[in-house]
Amino acid sequence: MAQRVYASKNPYTHELLETYEFTSPEELENTINASQLAFQSFSKLSFQARAEKIRLLGSLIRERKNHLARLMTIEMGKPITHSISEILKCAECCDYYAENAEKLLHPITYDLPDGRSYVRFEPVGPLLVIMPFNFPYWTPFKAVVPHLMSGNTIILKHDENMPQVSAAIDQITTDAGLEHEFKSVRLTIEQIGQVIADKRVQGVHITGSVRAGRSVAEIAGRNLKKCVLELGGSDPFIVLRDCNIKNAAKSAVIRRLNACGQVCIAPKRFIIEEPVYDEFYHELIQELENWKFGDPLNEATKLGPLAREDILTNIAGQVERSVNMGAQVVYGGRVLSSTQLEPTVMINITQDMPVMKEETFGPVFPLYKVGSVEEAIEVANNTEYGLGATIYTVDVQRAEEEIIPKIQAGMIFINDVTKSLVPVPFGGIKNSGLGRELGEIGIREFTVMKTVFVKS
Length: 456
Hints:
Elements: E1 4-9, E2 16-21, H1 25-42, H2 47-63, H3 65-76, H4 80-104, E3 108-112, E4 115-123, E5 126-130, H5 138-149, E6 153-157, H6 163-175, E7 182-185, H7 189-197, E8 203-207, H8 210-222, E9 226-230, E10 235-239, H9 245-256, E11 267-273, H10 277-288, H11 309-324, E12 328-331, E13 335-337, E14 340-341, E15 344-347, H12 354-357, E16 364-370, H13 373-381, E17 385-386, E18 388-392, H14 396-403, E19 411-414, E20 429-430, E21 433-434, H15 439-444, E22 447-455
Parallel strand pairs: 5-6, 5-8, 6-7, 8-9, 10-11, 10-18, 11-16, 15-16, 18-19
Antiparallel strand pairs: 1-2, 3-4, 4-22, 9-21, 12-15, 13-14, 17-20
């Protein structure tokens, strides 16, 4: 019997809830074969027929939101009210792509002097989708729903910490009539490589670390498979001297402490112009006073634990190494349990410190003072990542015309925090990944773009 390594553990109570075996070689073979057979019929359905299943999926998600949210909360620690919001966003995603996929994949036409030409978009086949723990429903659904609507079938490898969530996703998609069009499996690293290399599997979509993305891309490249990589981030949060400081500080806290800071697109480096640095600092501290740890199943709780003990070990180590290099912790910073680090505000920051150079997956706020917009841009770009960026300013025109063209990021938000929006392409540059999710670009990522020419 296979070693039982997929563990469902409550990060708040530290209770081991359940363990699961890896998918056996026989089960995996049956899953891939069933996915390929399902593709042959599913890809031939009309958009309307596929949309019926996706609309039903959205309805089932809403009906079961409390059950689904509770599983998320007990497996990764997200406060229950945040979990419910995530569930409802998944249902919104289903509704949007059921309604709009046909329009998003409508052929592109070209007028030519000697005929007409157009590009049509056709599905490619079974896809392997590898997903993380931090948004255990949203990350799979935002990746999967557009690809299902384009006619592909899905094999999901979810995070090893989320087996109950993974099973719930498998069940709800089956109940929506997608039993073989969508299937969840529990794979070893070796099995992941085997699935990517399998000739029946036509592409791979991963949300995860840079290291994992590189490994997946290497195997996909050797086998000439399309891949979409949504990887890490160290997003700059730029506060200019003319902005509403109170709004900026409130937004910074809300977004940074979402999922206890375990968000790839959360603001992680706070770059503040000198004239408003002190004011932003004080407003930030005041906002943080409203965020305390509690039982994530309690609706009043705003801040839950980190999902795993190793995540706390890593983020606490980054803070400690930065302090050893001269940084100062001016708020919080205490380790309260093996999965709880107090929201931590740090000053006297230099760009070579871990809290500025590395991705920080936890509730840490390094504050970096700059003397000008030009310096803010330089600091913002001084990272291997390029996922998102936030700019707070009253002068929106200046931001759009002079600052945004110089920021190295796939997504830039003005006077709001970076986030994923159901109709809008999502993704980064540099070590933050390749390709896009969502929107008309995301839904086309795993399609064959077939050019047709008809001579007049």
